[in-house]
Amino acid sequence: MREKKPIYVIGHRNPDTDSICAAISYANLKKSLGEEVVAARAGKVNKETQFALNYFGTDSPQLLVDVYPRVSDIMEQCHTMLGEHDNLRKLGKVMRETGLKSIPVVRNERDLAGIVTVSDLAKRYFDDLGMQSFSNTKITVRDILSVIDGDVIVDGDEDKLVNGDVRIAAGSLRMIESIIQKNDVVLVGDRVSPTLRACLEREIACLIVTGNGHIPTEIIEEAQNHKTMILVTPYDTYTGARLINQCVPVSRIMQKDVASFKPTDMLSDIKGIMEKKKFRSYPVVENSKVVGMISSDKLMVPERTRLILVDHNERTQAVEGIEEARILEIIDHHRLGGLQTGEPIFTRQDRVGCTNTIVADLYFQHNVVIPPKIAGLMLSAIISDTVLFKSPTCTSHDREIADSLARIAGVEINTYGMELLKAGSDVGNMSAMEIVKNDMKEFQIGDRKVIVSQTSVMDSSDVLKRKDELLENMREVCSREKYDMCLVMITDILEEATSLLFVGEPKTLIGEAFKKTAADNILYLPGVMSRKKQIIPQLTEAAKKYTAN
What we know:
Layout lengths: L6 E4 L6 H16 L4 E5 L5 H9 L6 E2 L7 H4 L1 E2 L4 E2 L4 H11 L3 E6 L3 E7 H10 L11 E2 H8 L2 E4 L6 E2 L3 E3 L4 H7 L5 E4 L4 H9 L4 E4 L7 H10 L2 E4 L4 H9 L21 H11 L3 E6 L2 E7 L10 E5 L15 E7 L13 E4 L5 H11 L6 H15 L9 H14 L3 H12 L7 H6 L3 E5 L2 E10 L3 H4 L2 H15 L3 E8 L4 E8 L2 H8 L7 E5 L4 H4 L1 H13 L1
Parallel strand pairs: 1-2, 1-17, 2-3, 5-6, 11-12, 12-13, 13-14, 17-18, 18-19, 21-22
Antiparallel strand pairs: 4-16, 6-7, 8-10, 9-14, 15-16, 20-21, 22-23, 23-24
C-alpha cells in the first residue's frame, strides 16, 4: 500500500534565515499538536542560516526542488513479481489469488525483464489450442513434472531438455507408431502393454500415465532398459495435456519492450506515453530494480502535495509547481501577493519584522513548551530579519519575543546577534552571481517582472569594488530569465544604509521611486535596510505614477 504523502512546511525560494527557521519551528509546533508534518526548504541554505543551524545543533530541512506530481506520488509498492523462468501455471495461480491484471517479470531478483498481462495469457490460450511443441523452449522433464503434480515411477535425468512434441497415445497401434516421434512427451491412459511398449520403442523423452493408471511390471523394466522416464499423474489425459501446455516459462509470452518509469518522473511527462501505449499498469524502476507499479487510472486524479507556506504568500516566490499543490495554511509577515486557493485555509499574518515572531506567538497561544534549540532558531530569524533590531520593520513586539526566546535559548542577544550577522556578511568567497542571487525574491511591480536580492555586510566597500562584475551578472540574469529589472541591495549593517545596484528599464522608475538621479546603475540610500518596507512599496507607487504618465 502506498504511504500517504506528508504535509510540508516550506518557505520561499532562495531561503533566508527567517524562511528556514520558520519551517523548522512551525513544523515542530504542528508535531507537538499531533500533526504529521515535515520541515522543508526550496533552495540552498546560506552562510548565516547555516551558522544558526550549527550553533543550535539542528539539521537543515528537507530540500524540495519542486512539488510537481511525480510517479512516486501515485506508485503502489510492488509485492508480486514473477521470475522469467516461472511457468504459465504459476502465472495463472498468482493472477487468480491476487486479482492482478499485470505482473512484472524479473531476473536476478528485481531486474526488470518484461511484463505479462492477463491479455497475454488469454492470447496464448487461443493461439495454442493444439498440443504443445517444446522445440527451442528449453523445457526440462522437471518442468513438466512440476505442473502435472506427478510422481516418478522410472527415474531418469529430470534436467534433460525436451525438444519434441506433446502426444496423446490414443487410437490404433498403427496410428500411434506413425505419429509418435523420438524425444516426444507421450500421455497415455490405462492402456494395454503393447501400446505402452510401442511408445517406449519410439525413444520418447518420457511417458506420462494419466489417472494414476496401473503400469505393468514388464513395462517398468522395459522403460529402465530404454532409459526412459515414466511419470504418473492423478489428472485425466485431457487435463494433463492442458497442464503440460502451462509449463512454458512466462518469458515466452511476456512483453519485453516495456514502457517503464522512474519514481522521479513527472506525471506530465509520462502522460503522453501512457496514452499511446494504453496499458493498464506500468512498472516503476529505480537503479534497474522494480520498486513499484502505477495504474493509468491513478493518473487521472493524482494526490496533490499538501503545503503550509511560511514567510511568503506570492506564487512567484513559492517552490516550483505550487499551482499543482494544495495549500493548507499561510504564516507570513509580508504584503498579500494574490496567491489563490481552491478552499478556505488557515492564515496568520501580522505587521511584524519576522515570521518567527508570529510562530512564537502561536507557541504561546497553544501553551506549547518551546525547546531551547527551537527558541534559538526563532531568535536567529528575528535578529536576521530585523538586522539586530535596526530595520524599520522591527516592532516592539519583535523585541519582546526576542527577549523571551533568548532566555529560553540561553544566549545573550547582542553578542550572539553580532556573531550571526558577521557569519552572514562574509562574502569574500562568494562569486558575483551568488551575490546577485543571494536572498533573491521575485515581485510583480505594475506590469514588470522584477527581482530584488539583498546581501548584508559589515563593510560594503569591498563588495562595491566588484560593481561592474555584479552589474554584468545582473544583466545576464535579466536576459536569461526574462526579467524586466534586477535590483541588488548591498546593505551595510554598521552604517545602516544600502547601496542599490540596478539594471533593466526604465531607469526613470528607480529615480521616481527614490527621488534621486539614476544614471550610474547605483544609488546610495542612507537609512534603508528593509526590502519589504523601504524598496518594494516605493517601487510599487512609482510604477503607478509611471504608468499613469
